[in-house]
């Protein structure tokens, strides 16, 4: 009976600790930074990939309105402190990546996230397609070396899990196993994946259409079959303290002119 009482007491204490322990904040969050973005410049921050389309839209918007837009992009660690202080807008490269961003930029609200455009995954191949890769099944051949993008639990990237989504799309465990056996490198972020694709002698890289569009000098691409194709979005969230012209910029991005600019980078509605 005494042992049983000790067990109940121990269980109660553990439960109390579990439910009262504070949630861990984002490791990038610095509570000492004051968010004060109003400075007459629309400052937007986000990952590499969607940045090319946002830069095109920023230039067109400046020409049309005279409002300056500054686009900062790349790994979040490079721009997070400036964004915590000055971000009028954060853009994401997928819904899961934006959800992670909001853990750090708490001055923005999930209900205000606005999905803008969507793009498809493709197979990036070396120029001239020396391995004659024509579709996903060719990636399962034993001689093929594939690069994939993964966050590895520590890096915020839209590529996390995309290779598995594509390989497992038809419900075949064998497809996942065979592709995994051919993965040459799991890289944290698309920039690192692109570098690995170029330098490690990879035959293919599973990624988003805008990468080969923006680097036609070093890469070609092959479309995935319709039943394998994966899409993810780019989205934005505007700070409630943003420069007033920020919402005007978002409306411009969503306009027909903006749609054409984004379409040139592989983004559709």
Would you kindly provide a brief summary of this structure?
The chain is α/β, with parallel strands linked by helices.
CATH fold group of the largest domain = D-Maltodextrin-Binding Protein, domain 2
How much beta, percentage-wise?
A: 15-25%
Taken in chain order, the helices and strands follow as HEHEHEHEEHHEHEHEEHH
Uncertain runs with pLDDT below 50, 5 residues or more? Answer: 11-23
Second rung of CATH, namely the architecture of the largest domain: 3-Layer(aba) Sandwich
**In angstroms, what is the radius of gyration?**
22 Å
Assembly type? single chain
Number of helices: 10
The residue fraction in helices comes out at 25-40%
User: Which geometry do the CA atoms define?
Assistant: globular
Number of domains: 2
Query: What is the number of beta strands?
Result: 9
Name the CATH superfamily assignment of the largest domain. Periplasmic binding protein-like II
């Amino acid at each position: 009976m005494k042992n049983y009482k000790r067990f109940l007491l121990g269980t109660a204490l553990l439960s109390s600790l579990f439910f009262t322990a504070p949630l861990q904040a984002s490791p990038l969050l610095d509570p000492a930074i004051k968010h004060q973005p109003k400075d007459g410049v629309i400052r937007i921050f986000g990952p590499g990939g969607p940045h090319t389309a946002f830069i095109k839209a920023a230039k067109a918007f400046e020409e049309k309105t005279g409002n300056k837009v500054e686009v900062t992009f790349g790994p979040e660690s490079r721009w997070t402190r400036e964004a915590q202080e000055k971000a009028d807008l954060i853009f994401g490269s997928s819904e899961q990546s934006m959800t992670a961003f909001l853990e750090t930029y708490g001055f923005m609200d999930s209900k205000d996230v606005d999905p803008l455009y969507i793009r498809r995954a493709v197979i990036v191949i070396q120029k001239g397609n020396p391995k004659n890769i024509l579709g996903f099944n060719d990636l399962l051949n034993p001689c093929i070396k594939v690069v994939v993008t993964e966050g590895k639990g520590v890096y915020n990237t839209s590529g996390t899990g995309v290779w598995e989504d594509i390989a497992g799309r038809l419900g075949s465990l064998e497809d996942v196993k065979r592709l995994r056996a051919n993965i040459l490198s799991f890289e944290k972020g698309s920039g690192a994946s692109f570098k690995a694709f170029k330098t490690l002698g990879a035959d293919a890289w599973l990624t988003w259409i805008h990468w080969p569009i923006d680097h036609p000098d070093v890469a070609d691409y092959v479309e995935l079959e319709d039943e394998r194709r994966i899409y993810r979005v780019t989205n934005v969230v505007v700070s409630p303290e943003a420069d007033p012209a920020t919402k005007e910029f978002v409306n411009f991005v969503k306009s027909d002119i903006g749609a054409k600019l984004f379409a040139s980078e592989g983004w559709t509605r």
